[in-house]
Structure formats: structure tokens, C-alpha cells
């Protein structure tokens, strides 16, 4: 065999081995067609959290809700009148008695100054007539009468200013109603000074505001009911309680200054609302939230105002539809599910 033929034969053999190797590799490498087809049996979990108009929305099937123990129900309407509880302190009338004495002294000085002014004014008028009528009195006598009149005028002004300053002090310390009663000599002030009655400072919980305080409030002192009558807005708050304060008046009933009482104020709500129980509220970043089931499988989270406490527990919330179904059990689970669903799934 010539060299050329041997070369062609060797080339053909090598080519055959190469083709065989490629085909063998193709058929020996396992395929994953069965694995890919198995993915149809394990689809990706459904999307439970969506954002609709900026509001996080959860979707849970009826079975998932039942397994998680989620219950949504209509809320009870708030009662037409609610009791707000506050703390009351019986005030010592000693300071009021001192201011009353100051005012009575100032009032007496005003009366004396008025009498002196009336006398000096008459003397000055007579002196003017006599001096004008052929100078029956000297000019020096006329000037002396005028000087006395001017002094008495200034004395009356000073006495009236002092009395007004005492009333201002009473108003700043005890309020306008007490200042007015003191200035006109009302017998109610004498009752307070003689301890037939007491002023009571009622302080509401911090953040609670009453636009129109009730005319009558009630408190308990031992077995006895204490009736409180509204006087005015207090001029200062209790430094320890830091809540809005009001002045009420009550008969003595063996009370003593410094006693503290638990007071109930019956208040008519300014707005109607629904009672949201504590179990329906979940706190996030220091704010209270509830979940509302808007459709059989859809829940949205809504922030509420916690400033109006319900009579027993929970909150009085305005702005909820009468037929709104609020989650009253399972709220924490919904919040946890919302956060879990918001975490991206890694491949």
C-alpha cells in the first residue's frame, strides 16, 4: 500500500472515532425533561400582598382564614354618652381666703378715698365760688383746696388700681368665675373660705380634651357619692398628671384639702363612632392599626385615632362604614403575613 493510501485510511479511521465520540456523548448525558415537567406539580406560591392606591392589600383564601383563626365582624356603635374618668384634687382655700382679705382691705380703702374726695371736691368748688365772688378767700386758700382735691383724686385712683390688681391676681390663680364672685361679694366665696364647700381640680388623662365640660360630674369618697358642679377652666394643670384641668365645686361632705378622688364625667361625643376592641388593634411604629375585610378574601390595613377611649376597653373610632367588617381576632397574624409576603423570595 502506497503512503498516500495509508494516510487516507488513517484519516478515515480518526474521523470515525471522532463522530462516534460525539454521538456517544450526546446519548450518554442524562436529560432533565422529567424534572422540568415535575415543576408543573409545584407552582410558585400565589401573590398575597399587593398595593392598591397606596394601600397594602392582603389576599387570603377562606381556608387560610379558617386555619389562621381570623374572624371579622361588624362593630358595635359607640353609646350616645360616655364616661371619661379623671383625677380630682381637693384644693386648699387658704390662698383664696388671703386674696379675699386683700380685696376687702382694698375695697375699704376705695370707700375711704371716695369719701375724702367727695369732701375735698365740695370744698374746692366752694373755694372757687368764694374766690371768684370779690375774692372772699385768698388765692392761697383756693390753691390749698385744689391741692387737697388733687391728692384725694390720686388716692382714689391708687386704691381702685390696687383693688383691680387683687382681682387680676384672683383671676390668674383661681379663674374668671371665682374672681367675679369675689369682686361682687358672692356668698359662695364665704362658703369656700369657711370650708362649707371646696373647689376641686379635675384633671383628665393626657391627650384627652373636652370641648364642653359637663355641668355635673360625680366622684366617690368612701361609700359616699360626691356631686361636683362645674365652675370654670382651671388656670393651671397638675404638674404630675399633665392633662387638661377644670375647676368644680362640691359640698364639704367631710372632705379635706389634698384628698384625691376618681371622677367620672359623662360626655356626649362630638362625633358618632364605632367601638374597636383591643383585640382588633395592632401597633406598628407607635401607631395603632386595624384590618378591614373589604371582600371575602381581601384585607386592608387602616390607621385609627387612639385619643377616644371606649367605656370598657378599646377605642371609639369615627369614619368607619356601619357595615364595615373589622378583624377582631387574628390581627397580629395578618400583620406578620403582610411582612412575610413583602420579603422578596430568593431564587
TrEMBL record:
Coiled-coil residue spans: 96-123
Keywords associated with the record: Coiled coil
Gene3D superfamilies: 2.40.420.20
Top-level taxonomic group: Bacteria
Record flagged with keyword Coiled coil: yes
Protein name: Multidrug efflux pump subunit AcrA (Membrane-fusion protein)
Species whose genome carries this gene: Methylovirgula ligni
Amino acid at each position: 500500500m502506497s503512503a498516500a493510501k495509508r494516510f487516507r485510511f488513517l484519516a478515515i479511521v480518526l474521523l470515525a472515532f471522532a463522530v462516534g465520540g460525539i454521538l456517544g456523548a450526546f446519548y450518554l448525558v442524562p436529560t432533565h425533561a422529567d424534572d422540568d415537567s415535575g415543576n408543573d406539580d409545584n407552582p410558585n406560591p400565589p401573590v398575597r400582598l399587593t398595593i392598591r392606591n397606596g394601600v397594602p392589600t392582603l389576599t387570603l383564601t377562606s381556608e387560610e382564614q379558617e386555619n389562621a383563626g381570623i374572624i371579622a365582624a361588624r362593630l358595635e356603635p359607640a353609646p350616645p354618652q360616655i364616661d371619661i374618668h379623671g383625677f380630682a384634687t381637693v384644693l386648699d382655700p387658704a390662698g383664696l381666703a388671703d386674696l379675699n382679705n386683700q380685696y376687702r382691705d382694698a375695697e375699704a380703702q376705695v370707700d375711704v378715698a371716695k369719701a375724702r374726695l367727695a369732701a375735698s371736691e365740695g370744698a374746692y368748688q366752694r373755694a372757687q365760688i368764694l374766690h371768684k365772688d370779690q375774692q372772699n378767700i385768698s388765692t392761697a386758700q383756693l390753691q390749698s383746696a385744689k391741692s387737697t382735691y388733687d391728692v384725694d383724686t390720686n388716692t382714689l385712683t391708687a386704691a381702685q388700681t390696687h383693688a383691680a390688681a387683687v382681682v387680676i391676681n384672683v383671676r390668674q390663680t383661681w379663674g374668671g368665675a371665682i374672681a367675679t364672685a369675689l369682686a361682687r361679694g358672692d356668698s359662695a366665696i364665704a362658703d369656700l373660705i369657711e370650708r362649707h364647700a371646696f373647689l376641686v381640680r379635675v384633671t383628665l388623662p393626657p391627650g384627652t380634651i373636652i370641648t364642653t365640660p359637663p355641668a355635673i360630674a360625680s366622684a366617690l369618697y368612701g361609700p359616699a357619692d360626691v356631686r361636683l358642679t362645674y365652675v370654670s377652666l382651671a388656670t393651671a394643670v397638675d404638674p404630675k398628671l399633665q392633662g387638661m384641668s377644670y375647676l368644680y365645686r362640691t359640698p364639704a361632705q367631710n372632705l379635706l384639702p389634698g384628698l384625691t378622688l376618681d371622677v367620672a364625667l359623662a360626655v356626649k361625643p362630638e362625633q358618632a363612632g364605632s367601638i374597636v376592641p383591643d383585640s382588633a388593634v395592632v401597633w406598628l411604629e407607635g401607631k395603632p392599626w386595624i384590618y378591614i375585610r373589604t371582600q371575602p378574601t381581601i384585607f386592608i390595613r387602616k390607621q385609627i385615632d387612639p385619643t377616644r377611649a371606649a367605656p370598657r376597653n378599646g377605642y371609639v373610632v369615627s369614619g368607619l362604614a356601619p357595615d364595615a367588617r373589622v378583624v377582631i381576632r387574628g390581627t397580629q397574624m395578618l400583620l406578620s403575613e403582610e411582612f412575610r409576603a413583602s420579603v422578596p423570595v430568593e431564587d
